[in-house]
Amino acid sequence: MKTLQRLLLATSCITPVLWSAAASAQTTPGSEAKAADDKEIVVTGTLIRGTQVTGSQTISVAPQDISLKGAISTNDLLGLIPQISNTFNGRFEGDPRGFSSGISITKPNLRNVPSSNQTSGGLTLVLIDGMRATPVGVNQAAIDVDLIPAVVMGGIDVVTDGGSSLYGADAVAGVLNFRTLPKFDGIKVDGNLGFGTKIKRHQTWNGSILAGKSWDGGNAYIAVNHDERTEVSNRDVPWTSGLVYNAAGVASYNFTQCNTPVGTEARWFRFGPGAAQFTNNPAAPGAGASFPVGTPCDGVSGNTYMPKQTRTNVFAKLTQQLSDTIDLRVTAYWSKRDTEFTSVPRGFTAAGSPLTTGALVGAAFPNAAVGSLTAVPGGTSFSFAPNSAYVNTPTRIGFETWGVSPELTWAVSSDWQVRVNGHFGKSTNYQSFPNVDTVKAQCYITGCTGINAGQLNPFNVAAASGSVIADIINYENAQDMKQKMLMVRTVADGPLFALPGGDAKLALGLEYQKNWAATRLNAGPVGAISSLPFNEVSRNAKSFFGEVSLPVTSFAVLSGSLRHDDYSDFGTTTNPNLGLTLTPVTGLKIFAHWNKSFNAPTAIDDLAISTGRFACGIYVPGGTAAQRPNDPLGRDTSKQGSCALVLQGSSPGLKPQTATSWAVGFEANPIDSLRFGANFYAIDLKNALGNLNPADQSTYTTNANLYTYNLTGPQYAAILAGLTNGAQLGAQQVASNIAIVVDTRTSNLNAAKLEGVDFNASFNKETELGQIGLGVNGTYATRARVLANGVPADRLNIGTSRFTAATFVSWRKGPLSTRVTVNYSGKARDEAPDNLGNVDRKAFTMTNVNFGYDFGEKSALNGLSLRLIVDNVFDVEPQRVNRLNTNNPAFFRWTLGRVIKLGATFQM
């Protein structure tokens, strides 16, 4: 097995001239259009019919690659493209730990742009058949690519060099266009089942049906898809761990809200018969002010590794020729996704006992014997799980969205055409995080108005009544968000005049886009959010754009485009793009481009939602300095509060992100069966939106203003006044219990200068043995100078590999097909500066094998296709690492281990 793995990896290294884009072929949509002899097709990256993208590379995933992948989701398909750094060779959706920060939708990240998933919008534009879709997410304006059922997917086009001058502000890093089937006639039923061999709890199933009908001048089809998967907990995964390691490499746990209470206690020695003759002076036998109690436990294994998810999609398309010159196309979708995951049981960190003097202790314990010790609890962390009434409610996140996109095409003349597009859609999004009413919890311990003390004993939670526990855990942090989008676009294109290389062509367009966002949030009793009003905001943008294609000679094509946007809230911007393509000899294309981009904050950012959440039980009151916040500047961090207050959302006054980029490359096709090429790119991104990363300890020095220690009452009141949920937070914790305030709200904190080289090649040959294909596609970063967390740093090969590549070998003969894909991510340095042990991430290689069999016309099973897919066939595990804390996972890379998928398709 190891020998085969080495052989396959070697293939990826020794075939630099057998390179493929994304999956199997570096074919542009333009070449597909030419092959179909359909000059009406508009390809991704240009608005002019019958032309190819000038000056830029286009990566495509072809329909046969989609079939061989056997993907049950569109996100699966993004794993074919190494240039999309956050989905290739790893997790194709958000880390569940990030869901608590509102990252429920993973946005495709071309070029590894920093903080791409920590902002509401994105820098990679996602289109469906060339049109936008309504954004989804709570505090996100993202496009969930799984809106499109895999059964209707006709291909994926990626323009990696920006596109803001044609498509708008969010095409800074590039454009990702999902092409659906133009028409379908018949019935197609598809089913898939997947299960893990190492992570046995991982199971998926998917079913879809596609039905379509053609008639004279028209076609309509509809697809219905449903898929489900099970939840996988960290305890099911061998490489996850809640252990942390000290400087000597000794392992222990550090979570404190455990079944066995963890905290401190003061031990008072009674030195005389007087009512106040008690002391906790360490000079007295056995006395002391702060004795540790209990042992920290594992706070990781009970958390989710991969959430449970259920999704239902409906996708429909209608095409109709209304007359000889007018065509209609209408696309519509509906999707509902529900995700849930569990965490370790909820707990609480109680404040210390008010018995802080000898007189108070004596009054509470008048019968203590002289010479005896009396223990008085200090701050104590504990879990509610030991009580039989406790219910560990899962976190729930989801959305429901729909959209309709009509398009009317009018052939004004034999050469000129006008296209009018529209889109209107809506999404409703929710998230609910189970929590604890900390005010009531403390009241049940120490008493307050209307609640008698002693109903909850931190050292005997099991003895509390069920009604007390139910009252405490009837609490959630919930947020709802609604989004709507209306867009109308008109584009006219056609020839202008003749040039030596052909006709000069022009496209002109107008666009109007309006976005609404409304949200409500609540920290209180479960379900109370439903009675709250929404806070709403809207913004619009009016745009004018144009593109010209100039074939100045038979071997040189020059193109230019310009877009002017007028935002209702951010003013105006004008962004140009220039492209040049040279074909000096047959089979060789040289291209170059330059452009500027402008990325405005989203309507959600206009809401300037600032919220806070508490992370309690992290710091043990009275504990060691290692258990309290570490400040490299040496500021006083001695305050022994048990909670951190984390500020989230958007800072007011966000500015637009801007970028300048350029690229130069070539593509060679010396013979029909061989194609190869390379592309150098450079991006200069300024005023990038981002968030503070508290896991990076250097930020305590570089962004000291975003950390506040030893909070005073007035400071606390001022912070709460600026938070949407400030009043609720103030009722939960007092200033004296806040050890640190961390401001992670989105701001224009970042910038980046990114450079690198893409390369690709493919070889496809029809032989007597069958059709043989070889290929590889990859990217190699040469520069990643990033201003992250307010500090410039060289991030090249930090956290993300600078070299990624996908290599494949395929064979097809008759009804049988097979494909072996090797995904490779090179070495990298660990991005967590607190890492112990090996700080180098080793290279990571995943090998996937696909088999397919199509029953032919002569078979009784005509129309049936079967698939067997084995992902991570060698069961490669992530690299394990010893951590100083649990802020980062105890492993590098991500996988579900070996996964076997069985699929069948029947079409008639």
From TrEMBL:
Q: Where does the secretion signal sit in this chain?
A: 1-25
Main localization is: membrane
What is the official name of this protein in its record?
A: TonB-dependent receptor
rRNA-binding recorded as keyword? no
SUPFAM superfamilies per the UniProt record, alphabetical: Porins
The protein's location, in the record's own words, is: Cell outer membrane
Q: Which residues form the TonB-dependent receptor-like beta-barrel domain?
A: 355-873
User: What membrane topology was assigned to this protein in its record?
Assistant: Multi-pass membrane protein
TonB-dependent receptor plug domain span: 57-175
One Gene Ontology cellular component term attached to this UniProt record is: cell outer membrane
Q: Which family does it belong to?
A: Belongs to the TonB-dependent receptor family.
Q: Which domain of life is it from?
A: Bacteria
Going by the UniProt record, its keywords in alphabetical order are: Cell outer membrane, Membrane, Receptor, Signal, TonB box, Transmembrane, Transmembrane beta strand, Transport
